[in-house]
Specification:
Elements (H helix, E strand, L loop, with lengths): L1 H23 L5 H21 L1 H25 L28 E4 L6 E6 L2 E7 L9 E8 L2 E6 L3
Parallel strand pairs: 3-5
Antiparallel strand pairs: 1-2, 1-4, 2-3, 4-5
């Protein structure tokens, strides 16, 4: 009787760990490997102590229980409680460039090779040139705003 309790305990722990691995913490592999290990040890103990025929039936039962357990875990939707249901629809710097306009003048804060930082209206923006390299503290003006990109050129004094 004690041997049956040990075998069933090993198999139940193995099945539980496999379900936890697949449903709740996928990708860690350690929990899944522990689950497989407990199940294999349970089947091996059954073969050694209860004979080949009983061990074979326990092996078939373990495989069936594992398959059914995983099937019902997916069907029950238990994993939906842990899944992300919302999504981020905003964009980086959305609306940030609305305060700028073509022809507006500013100054480079960093080197533009060909992109870097510039200051317009006491705010810093990521800008790029048409291919020219500009040094810091160079006067620039906006020649194009496309999406979230600001294209600038040097102001010739």
């Amino acid at each position: 009787m004690l041997m049956w309790i040990i075998i069933l305990s090993l198999l139940v722990i193995g099945l539980a760990l496999l379900i936890v691995e697949v449903i709740f913490i996928p990708g860690t592999t350690i929990v899944g490997l522990l689950g497989v290990g407990f199940s294999v040890v349970g089947v091996v103990v059954a073969y050694r102590n209860l004979g080949d025929e009983t061990g074979f039936y326990i092996l078939l039962g373990t495989l069936a229980a594992t398959g059914l357990g995983l099937y019902y875990s997916f069907r029950s939707g238990a994993w939906k409680r842990f899944a992300l249901k919302s999504s981020i629809t905003s964009k980086v710097n959305e609306g940030l460039l609305d305060v700028l306009s073509i022809g507006e003048e500013g100054i480079t804060v960093s080197s533009l090779r060909p992109s870097g930082k510039a200051e317009f209206q006491n705010k810093y923006f990521e800008v790029r040139t048409t291919g020219n390299f500009l040094n810091p503290q160079t006067k620039i003006k906006i020649i194009q705003i496309e999406g979230n990109q600001i294209v600038v050129e040097q102001i010739n004094n």
